[in-house]
Automatic annotation (TrEMBL):
InterPro entries: P-loop_NTPase, Thymidylate_kin-like_dom, Thymidylate_kinase. Belongs to the thymidylate kinase family. It catalyses: dTMP + ATP = dTDP + ADP. This is Thymidylate kinase. Keywords: ATP-binding, Kinase, Nucleotide biosynthesis, Nucleotide-binding, Transferase. Residues 8-194 form the Thymidylate kinase-like domain. CDD domains: TMPK. Its EC number is 2.7.4.9.
Amino acid sequence: MKSRFITFEGIDGAGKSTHIAALTERLAQGGAAVVNTREPGGTVLAETLRGLFLHSGMDSLTEALLVFAGRRDHLQRVIEPALAAGQTVLCDRFTDASFAYQGAGRGMDLSILETLEDWVQEGRQPDLTLWFDLPALMAAQRRAAAREADRFEQQDLEFFERVRGGYAERAAAAPQRFARIDASLSVPEVAAQIAAVMEARGW
């Protein structure tokens, strides 16, 4: 079976985790060998950097450098070997998150992020990005009911609306790769949207 690299994006509280698990099961039932991973994280080094990224104060450039360092290790140790072996990789966040959070959210110069993307990824992009889109207020309500906030989740609604806008810009720039999912709907309705996207691609 052909390898596929599928990423899940959206602001915190969008409900990605539930649907990553469901899609993993669906693909496995269809005979795919599936690798589940996440960013920041996915390797021993990148998980260590994740702890610093989520819980230590730093400026936007330091954030970006940390996450792209972890991404490089993640690509080399997990993502590229899995794809080369014909496996399907499902990744909770990838580079679009850097453009949305550090770029749109923090106001970082996008040209720096573009340079890091070129250096680290050497042309590798997801085959499909499922963007879980919903208003910042609804996402905040979901987060408050689910868990204690990390330093990103403690940001105000304006920050998350900027992040949401950053995702919208990335989606507009790569419509062939992005599929917008209305994450404000119920779990079954969101699952149906994902199934429709997969079926449309013959997956």
